[in-house]
Specification:
- The complex is a heterodimer of chains A (634) and B (501).
- By secondary structure, chain A is mostly helical.
- Chain A has two domains: 531 residues, no CATH class; 64 residues, no CATH class.
- Chain A has 27 helices and two strands.
- Chain A has a two-stranded antiparallel ribbon with strand order 1-2.
- In chain A, strand 1 and strand 2 form a beta hairpin.
- Chain A is globular and about 115 Å long.
- About 3% of the residues of chain A have low confidence.
- With 501 residues, chain B is mainly alpha-helical.
- Chain B has one domain.
- Chain B contains 19 helices and four strands.
- In chain B, 65% of the residues are buried.
- The model of chain B has no long low-confidence stretch (mean pLDDT 87).
- The interface between A and B is large, with 53 and 60 residues.
Chain lengths: 634, 501
């Protein structure tokens, strides 16, 4: 964690000083520095993983360091290294490393090259800090920092109108969830006085927390997780987040940060597993998200948005896995998903490099021009659908069988999800790689045909693609002998470990999910590959679903127009500013006016007329004498 | 070491005298004298903070006393004395004052109209602020309080700016007059409270440590605490006595806004804590729910009002009301975590809001407007300035790693500990609204396509950049490593009677 942080500080300082100078000497080195730092962080992560394996996934102890201590409030920052965090470390550093290498080429010549690497370093450092946190406040700190990096990188091209909107939206929507997280922290502290993650687990298992408080705490955490992991109804920010550079989408909005929500729920599994309401919520929200997002992916035309919806839906799968007590399956899926989804994004970036567009309707026929991109993306797509023997097959299968074991209705939803996934994946593949090339994006003005002939991307971009493709192919095999199992559950307290679902491998589940996947691919082939069925007819058949989907269930309208613009800005803020101006100031200015009026009246008394003064004195003297007499009389 | 506190008051007073003696045809000399003096104050105030020993014997540090009136008339031993000392609460605030005045001199560098008079008044004001934070004598506390408030009128009325909003106009004279009337009304209440306390204690002295040992009748405490709460509360921007604050800030020149929102408003909250809660714990406990309610309303009200503003400076002004609402909430928790949070928030808000006003001033100087709706994309022209704005804003919305989060977290934990769940939840809601107005402002004014009207904007001056970097250094210091602050503050908060842990 310290290495990327160090490189952030150096780059941030250097880039800040060189901010206004173009092509200054520092430009080349920021990329090298970041890559070197993350490379060493990757080596250390492997070392950490090795220690965790030796310890059978149990926690390797480290001492905390005093950060905030006031009376009962005690925040010691420390390190939690166990099977779960070690696995996350390897995912984060390996994907980050490959993405940084890829970015060397992808971001070449960009004005903000230094800034890009500074933010990427800060992000990687914060993400590692999040994973390693031993205290819930510490976790929250890094949680917010990764959110900040996400904001900064979505808005990386801040001079684009769409980017500034997307960045603001992402920050605010995730923030709504984070408020729940914060309230959860406050609840658990006021109930137990503890903030250490291990202490909270113990208190939850020992039943030291009232059941309402425990549920509220868990739901608060889940609100935070739903914001970060883009779960319904807080998923609306992730598709817009695609405004950021594509490597950012690959690292932050596909592989790592958005998975932090899943990690959070897994980290607090001993708490969630004690509350029936909370874990049911997790399963239900995950199921709803998986379905609605994959439906949206079917109508999206921007390849990055298709993948964003796909990410949302796969995160929904992980939540479903957690919701059926299948922590192993969920984290396993997180692990495999990180590789194949990062690969899909980097592949999309490669296609954009060739065609200048992300609009799938303007691509087509790319398999011919970009064979390496095609084959790697193909592997990732099949992994995503869950085709044997690629990574996604194994992890998705585990979620399905855990679901069957615990809550059959989740199994049904998940199986429908597999079909929908295959449909949008098939559509994406046929539109981009199949058929004829449709010319890419015509620049709005200036030299047209800049992308008339698509070309394969340079080697620096292809190497990460191939490396990720290898992982997408074989990552599923790690758990063949339940090798991940001990790592992922080894740190759990005994009582929680007993609750974990072990669905095991079942032939009929594997076959049915493969069948659903193939059926989906077949359906996509009918419409977009063989073109036997016209898309318009499908659309007509499904009325009014297409309109609803194209308007994204009207959620954006509900949030932005109705709530933010209508209620908050139009109503409350306007009323208050009027209140300040007229009621409060009106009262104050009124007092001022009254005082002036009083003074005007009083002025009349000092008109310089001796008779008036004399009579006033007379009245005063008489009054005083009368007063004395009355008092004396008593 | 006692001399250091005296020096912190004496230096600005002497600077004011020296500057008066400089012929007005040497404006540059005035600037360098000011810079030297502010630098000396900055260094000394840092020494006060770091040399403060928080372990071992509890109590006041760096004591210094000059008796002024003793054994005359109704006054007994140490009747009225210039008794200076700091505790762990005052030490960070003294450092904040040194920091903000140093930054303010850089920001005010280009003031050319009667710059001599400007700096004279500015240093008088600062002497008053140091005086309040350091005084251990009620009489002098009040004296310095007035010294800090009154220069404000001239500073705003002479060097300020009027704003025309189309439908209505806010002149600088209006802002100045409104501010002074409010604050003077507040000090009348404080004055009544001080004399009531003096008479009730019947010790013949205004010495705070002596008065603090007296057990006041609980009826008396309940009757007198509101005088302190409202009297000081006016300066702290307590709702509904806050409307002077946005108008005053907007009318004031940048350096004065920095001092005023950054430091002066803290005097109000500090007064409630130092005088009201310390002397009258039972009164404070009785009125705490009211204080909490007003704090929550202020926090929400300020945030929602800030959301409606299109003028950058009004937005910052209302955000101050909102953040000072947090301070009051922290004080009203009456427990060590919350009160710690209140003091942390005073520091955090002080540095942050000074940074915000620096930024507003920097862009206003060039663009001659503060209307965020007609800006757009100026991050391209002023990248560093935009980065400073973003950092200030992020601290304001409670991003971890910056000072605001540490303070707000304490306050929220404190409210939950004290059982004010609704208040904690409302405070968190206010933080969400803060995020909305800050990010909206950044998106509207700084990001997006560049409005061609602003093609000629330049990066902010180096002096301003230095001031901003300095303020950010402190925001990061407290955000990343709050332990030195907390050690000092909690050491003294524990000693306040009536604070539970």
């Amino acid at each position: 964690m310290l290495l990327p942080l160090g490189s952030f500080s150096v780059i941030a300082l250097v880039s800040f000083l060189g901010l206004t100078r173009d092509g200054s000497w520092s430009t080349r080195y920021s990329g090298y520095l970041t890559i070197a730092a993350i490379f060493f962080a990757f080596l250390f992560s492997l070392w950490a993983l090795d220690s965790a394996i030796d310890a059978d996934g149990a926690r390797v102890g480290f001492d905390g360091h005093k950060w905030i201590v006031v009376g009962g409030l005690d925040v010691h920052i420390g390190i939690t290294l166990d099977g779960l965090s070690a696995l996350m470390l390897v995912v984060v550093t390996s994907v980050s490393l490959l993405v940084q290498v890829y970015s060397q080429e992808y971001m070449r010549g960009d004005d903000g090259y230094n800034r890009y690497y500074a933010f990427m370093s800060l992000f990687t450092a914060s993400m590692l800090g999040l994973v390693l946190a031993s205290n819930i406040v510490q976790l929250f700190v890094f949680w917010e920092l990764v959110g900040l990096c996400s904001y900064l990188l979505i808005g990386f091209w801040f001079y684009k109108d769409s980017a500034r909107r997307a960045a603001t939206k992402a920050f605010l929507v995730t923030r709504v969830g984070d408020l729940g997280f914060l309230i959860g922290i406050l609840i658990i502290f006021s109930q137990t006085g503890k903030l250490g993650i291990g202490d909270i687990h113990e208190a939850a298992i020992a039943g030291a927390i009232g059941s309402t408080a425990l549920t509220l705490f868990a739901l608060g955490l889940f609100a935070g997780a739903a914001g970060k992991s883009a779960q319904f109804p807080l998923h609306v920010w992730l598709p817009d987040a695609m405004e950021g550079p594509t490597p950012v989408s690959a690292l932050i909005h596909a592989a790592t940060m958005v998975a932090a929500g899943v990690y959070l729920v897994a980290r607090f599994f001993p708490v969630f597993s004690e509350s029936e309401e909370a874990i049911t919520t997790v399963a239900a929200i995950g199921a709803v998200t998986a379905i609605i997002a994959s439906l949206l992916a079917i109508v999206a035309t921007d390849i990055k948005r298709v993948m964003a919806y796909s990410t949302i839906s796969q995160l929904g799968y992980m939540m479903m896995g957690l919701g059926v007590f299948g922590i192993v399956a969920a984290i396993f899926h997180l692990f495999t998903h990180a590789f194949f989804k990062a690969l899909l994004f980097l592949g999309a970036g490669s296609m954009n490099h060739a065609t200048g567009t992300f609009d799938m309707r303007k691509m087509g026929g790319l398999a011919k021009y970009m064979p390496v991109t095609f084959w790697t993306v193909f592997v990732a797509s099949m992994a995503l659908v869950g085709i044997f023997p690629l990574a996604g097959f194994w992890s998705k299968d585990e979620i399905l069988s855990d679901a069957w074991d615990d809550r059959p209705w989740v199994f049904v939803v998940a199986l429908i999800g597999v079909f929908l996934t295959a449909v949008y994946v098939g559509r994406m593949l046929f539109l981009t790689f199949g058929g004829e090339y449709k010319g890419g994006e015509e620049p709005e003005h200036g030299e047209p045909g800049g992308h008339a002939e698509p070309h394969e991307s340079p080697p620096l971009m292809l190497v990460p693609l191939v490396a990720l493709a290898v992982m997408a192919a074989v990552a599923g095999l790690v758990n063949l002998d339940d090798g991940l199992e001990t790592l992922i559950v080894g740190w759990l307290p005994k009582e929680s470990e007993e609750l974990v679902t072990h669905g095991g491998f079942q032939w009929w589940i594997a076959l049915s999910s493969t069948a659903a996947g193939l059926a989906g691919l077949g359906a996509a082939w009918l419409v977009y590959g063989a073109r036997v069925v016209q898309p318009g007819r499908v659309r007509h058949f499904a009325e009014p679903l297409p309109e609803i989907l194209e308007n994204k269930y009207y959620l954006d309208w509900l949030y932005e127009e109705l709530f933010v613009r209508g209620v908050v800005l139009g109503g409350a803020a306007w009323l208050l500013s009027l209140w300040d101006r007229y009621v409060i100031d009106g009262a104050v200015n009124g007092i001022g006016t009254a005082a002036r009026w009083g003074a005007d009246q009083a002025r009349l008394l000092q008109a310089g007329q001796a008779q008036l003064y004399a009579s006033a004195m007379l009245i005063g003297v008489v009054g005083a004498i009368a007063g004395i007499l009355i008092i004396d009389a008593k | 070491m006692g001399g250091v506190l005296f020096a912190l008051i004496a230096i600005p007073v002497c600077t004011a005298v020296v500057i008066m003696a400089v012929p007005s045809r040497y404006p540059q000399l005035v600037r360098y004298i000011s810079l030297l003096s502010a630098g000396a104050q900055f260094v000394l105030s840092i020494i006060v903070f770091f040399a403060y020993e928080f372990q071992g014997s509890r109590g006041l540090r760096f004591g210094f006393r000059v008796d002024w009136l003793e054994n005359v008339g109704f006054l007994g031993k140490h009747g009225i004395s210039l008794h200076l000392a700091v505790d762990g609460i005052a030490a960070p605030l003294v450092m904040l004052t040194g920091l903000v005045i140093f930054a303010a001199v850089f920001v005010s560098w280009n003031i050319s109209y009667r710059n001599k008079d400007f700096f004279v008044l500015l240093f008088l004001l600062v002497a008053g602020v140091f005086g309040v934070f350091e005084s251990q004598d009620l009489f002098f506390l009040f004296f310095w309080y007035e010294v800090a408030v009154l220069p404000m009128y001239l500073l705003i009325a002479v060097w300020g700016a009027s704003s025309n909003f189309g439908t209505f106009v806010r002149t600088k004279e209006y802002g100045a007059m409104k501010l002074v009337l409010y604050l003077v009304a507040g000090s009348v209440l404080i004055f009544v409270g001080i004399f009531a306390t003096f008479v009730e204690a019947d010790r013949g002295t205004f010495d705070l440590p002596v008065l603090g040992q007296v057990q006041y009748d609980s009826g008396f405490q309940k009757a007198v605490f509101p005088f302190y709460m409202i009297g000081f509360g006016v300066l702290a921007g307590m709702w509904p006595f806050h409307t002077w604050s946005p108008d005053g800030h907007v009318a004031a020149p940048t350096g004065v806004s920095m001092l005023h929102a950054g430091v002066l408003m803290k005097l109000g909250a500090f007064g409630i804590l130092r005088v009201g809660m310390t002397l009258l714990p039972a009164g404070a406990e009785f009125w705490a729910p009211v204080l909490m309610t007003l704090g929550v309303i202020g926090a929400l009200y300020g945030a929602v009002s800030a959301l409606a503003q299109t003028d950058l400076k009004y937005m910052v002004g209302y955000s101050s009301v909102s953040h000072m609402g947090y301070v009051l909430m922290g004080l009203a928790t009456m427990n060590d975590i919350g009160v710690n949070g209140a003091v942390l928030q005073m520091f955090a808000h002080g540095a942050m809001t000074a940074l915000m006003f620096t930024n507003v001033g920097a862009v206003y100087d060039q663009a001659h407007t503060r209307d965020m709706t007609i800006f757009g994309g100026i991050a391209k022209k002023m990248p560093r300035h935009s980065a400073f704005w973003a950092i200030a804003g992020l601290s304001s919305l409670g991003l971890p790693g910056l000072a605001g989060f540490v303070a707000e977290f304490h306050i929220f934990v404190g409210t939950f500990q004290a059982g004010y769940y609704w208040a904690g939840a409302a405070g968190i809601l206010a933080a969400a609204i803060t995020a909305t107005y800050i990010l909206r402002m950044l998106a509207r004014a700084y990001f997006g396509p560049l409005n061609e009207q602003w093609e000629n904007l330049k990066e902010m001056r180096l002096g301003e950049q230095f001031a901003a970097a300095l303020l950010i250094a402190f925001l990061l210091f407290m955000g990343l490593w709050p332990t030195p602050f907390i050690d000092r503050i909690s050491d003294s908060v524990r000693n306040i009677p009536g604070i539970t842990s």
